[in-house]
Write a structure and sequence with these properties.
Keywords: Signal. It comes from Povalibacter uvarum. InterPro entries: Cytochrome_P460, Cytochrome_P460_sp. This is Cytochrome P460 domain-containing protein. By secondary structure, the chain is an alpha+beta fold. It has a single domain (about 5-200), classed as Cytochrome P460 (Chalcone isomerase, 3-Layer(bba) Sandwich). Helices cover about 30% and strands about 25% of the residues. The longest helix has 14 residues, at about 5-15. The chain is globular. The chain starts with a helix and ends in a 10-residue tail after the last helix. The relative contact order is 0.15.
């Protein structure tokens, strides 16, 4: 391969997001976290177009659980920005400027009067949170934010909140509960980035 071919192939690799890790990180920043001048996190308008990496029922804890009506086993949907998702598939690790959005929805019971109809489905949104990896902004690299559909931005959740220690101690990959995201769990195990502690959590 001559020098011109090498340059062309390098350009193609960068365009496809398959180049060096630095190239992936650069792309991740384009759809990663954005902040207001006062440090609040802007809610991504199009997060529902991102990769939906996991859905759970009754898995809330800490401040988020306080938003749920008593006895309701809320659904949680986790979305991640596309560039970070693609990077994770390649490496099993989260690049800087990764942004997760956690959408909390009330669970509703199917009308069981109809024969064969039973179970739960997702109702209205009752809360939104976000987790970001921003190494230059946060001493611990990762931070959590409260968001809503009413306001364009939301405040930082204090580091004293239980979500910080829980993620640090129990997360499968870095600060994220990848053990609950089936496709990414398999990727992390293949890439050797899955923490053993998460096997029993």
């Amino acid at each position: 391969m001559n020098a011109i071919q090498a340059v062309l192939w390098g350009a193609i690799a960068l365009a496809l997001g398959t180049g060096p890790a630095g190239a992936v990180d650069s792309k991740a920043a384009a759809d990663g976290p954005q902040y207001t001048s006062t440090g609040e996190l802007l809610r991504p308008e199009n997060y529902r177009e991102w990769a939906l990496i996991g859905t759970g029922v009754g898995m809330l804890y800490g401040p988020a659980r306080d938003k749920v009506p008593s006895g309701n086993r809320a659904f949680t949907n986790v979305f991640v920005n596309p560039a970070s998702y693609r990077a994770f598939l390649q490496t099993g690790a989260w690049p800087d400027k990764t942004l997760f959005v956690l959408e909390i929805r009330r669970s509703e019971v199917v009308n069981q009067a109809k024969e064969g109809a039973n179970g739960l489905f997702q109702g209205d949104i009752i809360g939104i949170e976000a987790e970001v990896k921003d190494e230059g902004r946060f001493p611990g690299k990762w931070a959590f934010f409260n968001l809503s559909m009413r306001e364009p931005a939301g405040p930082l959740i204090p580091t004293s909140a239980s979500c910080y220690s829980c993620h640090e101690q129990n997360a499968a990959v870095e600060n994220t509960f990848t053990q609950f995201y089936p496709v990414l769990r398999d990727v992390a195990k293949q890439k050797g980035t899955f923490r053993k502690v998460a096997e029993v959590f």
